Recover the amino acids of this structure.
């Protein structure tokens, strides 16, 4: 038979109301009384009915996280960091994959998933700012990523342009002059791809190196995308002496294709990425990349969202902090 609140009350020698107050973290309870109730809960193995409690209090202590695809290493590692940050603050995290589809993103903002959480961390790739604002309701929302940037929305940002410029400058300092960029189209201006491409161009310009559109190759931000883009470059006859994958998965795919084709890395072609996923350290050769401050992003995003949840000031000023980045120089581009 399941343990009830009445069982806890009898074991602790207190009223049912006192047990309820302890479970709901009522502040005006004597420490000794609270400890007796907590001890009884532990000894009896009582599990509170969180659904009923959330209906009464209007609070679930759950955060929502909506992202495109957990099979993308950066998203998986970011989700892990977010869960750790939430746990340390007494919250849990529900994760929803949107598949980069507007219908799924909108459903996460409005549907049952939203009702189960007190606030939402959202990486939008299909909806624009107006659509997000129109669909998000009254519960707090913090954006991650750079596809949407709007002064009306809380968000935690990566220094995409500055970090990409740092990677490119490092390759240039190593004597590379024909740096291929994988994962963008030459006309991209917005989102992570556009911002990273802008940083690449800025570093070329600062070094007096002419930008060649033939070196900008679009591809999916996956290993197979990077491998395919590199194969197309090699087959085209376009000369290049370095590859900058706009995320590590692309760079690792490029690295694989280059080695498969018998190209020496970094002697002939240097390779660099962006994100510093765990796999980048264990590649052979290990991958030079930029760490965009993933742990800081998770901490600041969770902290900001919980502040919004627990604050009564709905009109507090919008916050848009940037996380610090760090260049990680390894064997693929020393």
């Amino acid at each position: 038979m399941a343990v009830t609140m009445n069982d806890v009350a009898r074991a602790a020698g207190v009223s049912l109301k006192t047990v309820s107050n302890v479970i709901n973290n009522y502040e005006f309870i004597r420490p000794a009384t609270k400890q007796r109730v907590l001890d009884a809960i532990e000894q009896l193995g009582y599990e509170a009915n969180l659904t009923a409690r959330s209906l009464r209090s209007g609070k679930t202590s759950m955060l929502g996280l909506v992202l495109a695809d957990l099979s993308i290493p950066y998203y998986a590692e970011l989700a892990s960091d977010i869960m750790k940050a939430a746990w340390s603050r007494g919250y849990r995290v529900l994760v929803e994959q949107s598949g980069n589809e507007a219908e799924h993103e909108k459903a996460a903002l409005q549907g049952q998933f939203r009702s189960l959480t007190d606030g939402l961390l959202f990486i939008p790739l299909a909806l624009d700012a107006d659509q997000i604002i129109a669909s998000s309701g009254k519960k707090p929302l913090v954006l991650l990523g750079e596809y949407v940037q709007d002064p009306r929305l809380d968000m935690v940002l990566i220094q995409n342009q500055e970090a990409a410029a740092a990677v490119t400058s490092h390759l240039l300092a190593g004597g590379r002059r024909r740096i291929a960029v994988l994962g963008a189209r030459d006309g991209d201006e917005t989102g992570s791809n556009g911002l990273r491409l802008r940083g690449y161009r800025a570093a070329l310009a600062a070094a007096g190196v002419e930008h060649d559109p033939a070196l900008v190759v679009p591809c999916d931000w996956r290993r197979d995308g990077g491998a395919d883009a590199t194969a197309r470059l090699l087959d085209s006859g376009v000369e290049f002496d370095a590859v900058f994958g706009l995320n590590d998965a692309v760079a690792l795919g490029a690295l694989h294709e280059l080695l498969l084709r018998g190209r020496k890395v970094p002697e002939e072609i240097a390779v660099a990425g962006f994100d510093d996923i765990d796999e980048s350290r264990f590649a052979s050769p290990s991958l030079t990349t930029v760490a965009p401050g993933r742990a800081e992003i998770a901490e600041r995003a969770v902290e900001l969202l919980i502040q919004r949840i627990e604050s009564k000031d709905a009109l507090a000023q919008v916050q848009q902090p940037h996380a610090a980045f760090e260049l990680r120089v390894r064997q693929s581009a020393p």
Q: What stands out?
A: The longest strand covers residues 62-67. The two ends are 64 Å apart (CA to CA). The chain has three domains: 5-48, 62-158+294-324, 160-291.
